[in-house]
Design a protein that fits this description.
By secondary structure, this protein is α/β, with parallel strands linked by helices. The chain has helices spanning 6-21, 28-41, 58-65, 78-94, 150-163, 179-183, 227-234, 258-263, and strands at residues 48-52, 70-75, 114-118, 135-140, 164-174, 191-198, 202-209, 215-222, 237-243, 270-276. It has a single domain, classed as Rossmann fold (3-Layer(aba) Sandwich). The strands form 2 sheets. Strands 3-2-1-4-5-10-9 form a 7-stranded mixed β-sheet, with helices on both faces. It has a 3-stranded antiparallel β-sheet with strand order 6-7-8. A hairpin with a 3-residue loop joins strand 6 (191-198) and strand 7 (202-209). Helix 1 (6-21) packs across helix 4 and helix 5 (150-163) crosses helix 7 (227-234). The structure holds S-adenosylmethionine. S-adenosylmethionine is lined by residues 5, 8, 12, 53-55, 58-59, 75-77, 80, 120-122, 141-143, 146. This is Methyltransferase type 11 domain-containing protein.
Length: 277
């Protein structure tokens, strides 16, 4: 049987400190991922953004740096959120650049442009009190690979669709849709994936990020690759596309280096994009 989503909270509570203090963002695969996401996001100036599975806020901070107005950031792991909030707190202490008139943290403090909430994004988020249709852009980076079946994937996409304004964009990065390429990625990129189990709908995979310290976690690749495209269409999204990174994601001075080109042969991630109808 698939592990219940609640176990995702405990899983990331355990690895949160290593995840957030590691040199993860220096791994070639993660550099490419960040560049792909940045290109996909395009102009986010003054946008109101919802970040599902925000973790400790890596990409919430990225979109703020790119000019977004506010980010509502949701994750299941209290420990990932605690680290994200402490980064906000120390930034707020050091300068007033995180202050925004309408940013209010979960415990009622004002002045934060990133506001963190704890919730399971594979369940309805009604209890958070967010206004449906009120976000210009929703992002979710490495969320959908925690769906262990079609229902959980559909619930995640329902949250995306419910909170996006009509015409609003979804932009996020995520895991590949089939097992074989995921097992065969260049370790030089910084990732090693192995099979950890089977459910009716999914292969459970164990992922090791080869950072310092290393970080490891379990997630899922659904057996029916079509679900990744069909499900968002069923819940009110259109223009659903999955784009692998290209040479433009490789830092300019590395584009002739063989290892970097190898990383592109089997993608490290996909850019997921869609629009709310
Ligand atoms: C690989 S981390 C990515 C964090 C962040 N988006 C980033 O890219 O740095 C995956 C995150 O997904 C969160 N997560 C997993 N399942 C979740 C769920 N059902 N609801 C909300 N968050 C979930 C984990 O707690 C973890 O923080």
């Amino acid at each position: 049987m698939a592990a219940p989503p609640q176990s995702q909270s405990k899983q990331y509570d355990t690895i949160a400190a290593a995840y957030s203090s590691s040199n993860l963002t220096d791994l070639p695969g993660e550099i490419i991922t960040a560049n792909l996401l940045r290109r996909g996001l395009g102009d986010v100036q003054d946008l109101t953004i919802l970040d599902l599975a925000c973790g400790s806020g890596l990409y919430s901070r990225m979109v703020i740096e790119l000019g977004a107005r506010t980010v509502t950031a949701v994750d299941i792991s209290s420990e990932m959120l605690r680290i994200g909030q402490s980064i906000e707190d120390s930034a707020a202490r050091d300068s007033d650049t995180t202050a925004a008139p309408d940013g209010t943290s979960a415990d009622g403090r004002t002045g934060y442009r990133i506001v963190y909430h704890q919730a399971d994004c594979s369940q309805p988020l009604d209890h958070l009190g967010l206004k449906p249709g009120s976000f210009d852009l929703v992002t979710a980076n490495w969320l959908f690979n925690y769906a262990s079946n079609r229902t959980e994937l559909a619930n995640m996409w329902r949250n995306v669709s419910r909170y996006l304004a009509p015409g609003g964009r979804f932009v996020g990065v995520g895991e590949l849709h089939s097992l074989e390429p995921a097992l065969n990625r260049s370790e030089w990129a910084g990732i090693r994936v192995s099979v950890a189990g089977e459910t009716d709908d999914a292969t459970k995979v164990h992922t090791e990020l080869l950072s310092e310290p290393p970080v490891a976690f379990d997630s899922f690749i659904l057996k029916c690759a079509d679900w990744y495209r069909d499900v968002p269409l069923e819940v009110g999204m259109e223009d659903v596309a999955f784009t692998p990174p290209g040479i433009e994601e490789v830092p300019e001075h590395c584009r002739d280096v063989e290892e970097w080109r190898e990383v592109l042969v089997v993608p490290y991630c996909l850019l997921y994009t869609a629009t709310k109808t």
